[in-house]
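QA checklist item 7 of 12: single-chain prediction sanity check.
[x] sequence parsed
[x] length recorded as 175
[x] structure emitted
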Amino acid sequence: MLRLTGLFSTVGTLALSSLAGMLGVTFTTEPASAQAAYGSYVGVGPTFGLADDDTGEGRQVGGVIAVRYKLLEYPISFRTQGLIGAGTAVVPTISYDVPLNWQTDVYLGAGAAFGSGDTPSPVGDKTSFVLQPGIDHVLPNTNTVLFGNAIIAFDAYRNGGGTAFSLQGGVGLQF
């Protein structure tokens, strides 16, 4: 019986010390919180359509609204640009991002351009495959992003002319 009492005493001591350890860990942990998507931003700026179709339409100056959502654990971003010129287009892409330093990423995106209307946008007037090389730079100690990119839209014009090419740049705010 004495051995049994000693065993219960040892088990009880271990259980209490384990419980105290777990409570200590429980009381010293910090509450969970969601991480911000560092590098994600919304921005605006000018766009320049540099190619035209067979009827001479397509070269133009317009505006761009750019959105980037950066995945934190992967070098991937979801990007969308709305181009507004003589015509409009929406260009969603998925990009592979390569950091040059803490503030600067270069990237190559692939996606589609969805042109609307009969007048070409800076990236054409029909649905087409696009490549989008670009660069994002965060100004140190701010939430301000400077961005620049090109959009190359293949077979982008209804009236012939082939590939559309546009350049965009602007300023964004991180979220």
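[x] summary fact logged: The longest strand covers residues 104-116.
[ ] second reviewer sign-off
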